[in-house]
Each structure stands twice: as C-alpha cells, then as structure tokens.
Amino acid sequence: MKLKIKISNRLFAIPVCVAACLFLGQSTVTAQDSTGTVAEKTGPAKRKPVKNTFQSIWIIDNQTVMVPVKGTLEIDIQHRFGTVQNGYQDFWGFFAPSNIRLGVNYSPINKLNVGFGITKNKMLGDLNAKYAIITQTKGKYPVSVSYYVNMAYDTRKDKDKTIFKYQSQRLSYFHQIMIARKITNKLSVQVAPSISHQNAVEGYYTKNDSTGTAIFKKMKFDHFAIALSARYKLTNVMSFMINYDQPLTKHATKNPHPNFSFGFEMNTSSHSFQIFAGNYSLLSPQQNNLYNANNPFGYTENDGTKTKGGQFVIGFNITRLWNY
Fold first, then answer.
1. What are the tens digits of pLDDT across the range 62-90?
2. Quick check: helix, strand or coil at residue 88?
3. Is residue 21 in a domain?
4. Quick check: 71 and 82 in contact, CB under 8 A?
5. CA distance linking residue 47 with residue 171, whole number of Å
6. Which pLDDT score, from 0 to 100, does residue 1 have?
C-alpha cells in the first residue's frame, strides 16, 4: 500500500451555500391608527432589529450570526482536552494531550468582524471574517443571516519537504452561512450549511479484486456539512447550548464522524465563558468537518475499521470584549 498525495488546481472554493439567503422573503408593515392622527404626525413606526439572538460569536465549535458592534476588540481562548474514554487513567482526558487556539478579532465597521488565530494542532494560522447580511427585524426580516469565511495555513517547519511538496498544500478554506432566529426571549436556533476545501488530499492505491488493477481511493477536495444549534436562557447570565454537525459529503476513504455537543454558557457584559462536552477537538472548522475521528454514537465502520462511540472531549471557550 503506497501513500499518495493529490493536489487540487483550485486555491479557493466557491461557497455555493451562499444561495440560501436568496430565498429569504421580505415584507413591509405600515403603522396604523384608528383615527389617522398618530400616523399623520409621526409616520411609520421605526422597525428595531432583534437584539441578543446569541451572546457570543461562538456556540461551542461553531460561529453564530452575532457580529460585535463597531470598535469592539475580542480575545478568544479555546481549549479541548483529550477524550474521556480512558477514564481515571488520564483523569477523563484532563491529563491527556490537549488542543488550544488563541484568537483576536476586531470590528472595524458595523456588521463586519475580522480576525486571526493560531492553533496548537498542526500549528495552523488562520485569517477569518464575518459579515452580518441581514438582522432579524419584526415585520421585515424573520431571521438573521451572516456569512463566515476562514483561510488556514499549516505553519509547521518542513525544510526537507517530507510533509509538503508544494506551499499550496498547506492551505485550506471554510465557508459558512448562518441563518438564525430568536424565537422567544429565551430560545434562539440556528442552521448553518458549510463547505470546506482542502488543497491536498491523502489517498491509497488498492487492488481491484476482480481485475487486479490498482485503484486510487482518496478523499474529495470539497466537503459539505450542516450544523444545527440552539441556545436556551436559564437565567439572565446562564444558558444551555446544544449543537449537532452532520457531514453530507461521502468520501472514498477517511469519512469524518458527526459531532454532537452540549454545555453551558455564562455571560457578563464583556465576558463569555462556555464549558461543554463534544466530539470536535481540532478547533479549525475545516479540520473538524474534514477529519473528525471522534465518534459520538454506537459503532461505526469506516475503511473497514469499527469505531466505538462515546468519544467525547471536554472543552471550554473564553472570550473577552473591549469597546473603543
């Protein structure tokens, strides 16, 4: 069995999921008064956008539709411990090898957030941006829609080119459309289709049993997925979160597992702390969607290998905001 690397001739994956926002309808409502006097003096009532659909730009491993106001600086610390499967042997993953991401984000104008970060796994450096396309507004927009894009670069040293033959192999991309609605003052939900793109894929030559010819089995360059998230406020400062990520693309090899995560969020005016359990541990959205090896449920067979479920990791997100 010989390991091969195949490289895509595309350096940027087009986010076809952007088309989802084209289906959002729009309607207008005019203020009315039984006597006509109020409407004549004040005109149509001003529509106000819905506030605090989410309290953080994160809901566990996914972005939310939230974009901080202009002039907001944010520092992120994200941490994922090892899987809980070994129990007391490594103290349910707390003493196992962990993964960490440090990030900085800033909103130079309203509706736009840009940032960068670095992740321990593969020493991935990433640039990202998020734009709020529309905001839920009573009588106008039934949902909020934001677009998120991320480009990651593997910064590991490789002088002998044993890992990367070309610089383009270090690059990967992620695009996502977040569509959310604040249903009540306590409950908010979000659906987020995404596409991940990798410039280089691994594969293996295997023999066809009937003809004896070699077949190259490989992952695809593009991977589609969808994330479903919800947050329910328990008190003014604490919420319960739940999230599910479902892979949609089927690969010839190394199919990623879905992710099921749940936990709690505590908020102040300038802090957000989230603690949770889930299956994602790679912290980069394209890496999580393409390569998640932690199985949440039952037994799953992948490339002839059965994987037992229950491979959860405990993690936390800390965000700190400053407004200038």
1. 999 999 999 999 999 999 999 998 899 99
2. helix
3. no
4. no
5. 43
6. 42
* Number of domains the chain contains: 1
Residue 264, domain extent: 3-7+58-323
| pTM (predicted TM-score) | 0.83
Per-position DSSP letters for 193-244, written without gaps between them = EEEEEESEEEEEEEE-TTT--EEEEE--SEEEEEEEEEEEESSSSEEEEEEE
The answer to whether the Cα torsion of 151, 154, 155, 161 is positive or negative is negative
Q: Residue 20, SS3?
A: helix
Residue 300 sits in a domain of what CATH number? Answer: 2.40.160.40
- Rounded to an integer, the average pLDDT of 291-313 is 85
**Within-domain flag for 29:** no
The rounded distance, in Å, linking the Cα atoms of 163 and 253 is 20
Residue 23 dihedral angles phi and psi, to the nearest 5°: -90, 0
**Separation in Å, CA 172 to CA 150, 198, 282:** 8, 5, 14
Position 35 in a domain:
no
User: Between β-strands 187-198 and 171-182, what pairing exists: parallel, antiparallel or unpaired?
Assistant: antiparallel
Q: Residue 69 is encoded by which pair of tokens?
A: 């106001």
* Whole-number Å distance between alpha carbons of 237 and 107: 24
State the Cα–Cα distance between residues 216 and 233, nearest whole angstrom: 50
Residue 298 lies in a domain: yes
d(CA 250, CA 82): 27
pLDDT tens per residue, range 239-263: 999 999 999 999 988 899 999 999 9
**Nearest Cα residue to 119 out of 111, 130, 127:** 127
Segment 155-183, tens digit of pLDDT:
999 888 888 888 899 999 999 999 999 99
Contact (Cβ atoms closer than 8 angstroms) between residue 144 and residue 53: yes
Place of tokens 């992948």: 302
